[in-house]
Design brief:
It is a single chain. With 80 residues, the protein is an alpha+beta fold. The protein has one domain. It is built from 1 helix and 5 strands; from the N terminus they run E-E-E-H-E-E. A hairpin with a 2-residue loop joins strand 4 and strand 5.
Length: 80
């Protein structure tokens, strides 16, 4: 098993994962990143101009993959 780290980028802010977690495969790490973003969705208030949240997945050898989620409100007409 390899140790994977999940660095969260929320707009301009970066929250680096210094502990990581041991997982059997890259796919398992990607699933973990998707679930983490899904959990964060409940606590986020999307802005009209949009908001990006990204998890950079890395291991001890470097970057592995990136999982991103874009929140945006697209209004049609003159709604308040």
């Amino acid at each position: 098993m390899a140790r994977y780290y999940f660095d969260l980028r929320d707009g301009a802010e970066l929250f680096r994962d210094e502990e990581g977690v041991e997982l059997p495969t890259v796919r398992a790490a990607e699933v973990e990143a998707v679930r983490a973003l899904g959990g964060l969705v409940r606590d986020v208030e999307p802005a009209a101009e949009g908001r990006d949240m990204i998890i950079d997945v890395r291991n001890d050898d470097g970057p592995v993959s990136q999982v991103s989620l874009v929140f945006a409100i697209n209004r049609h007409g003159s709604h308040s």
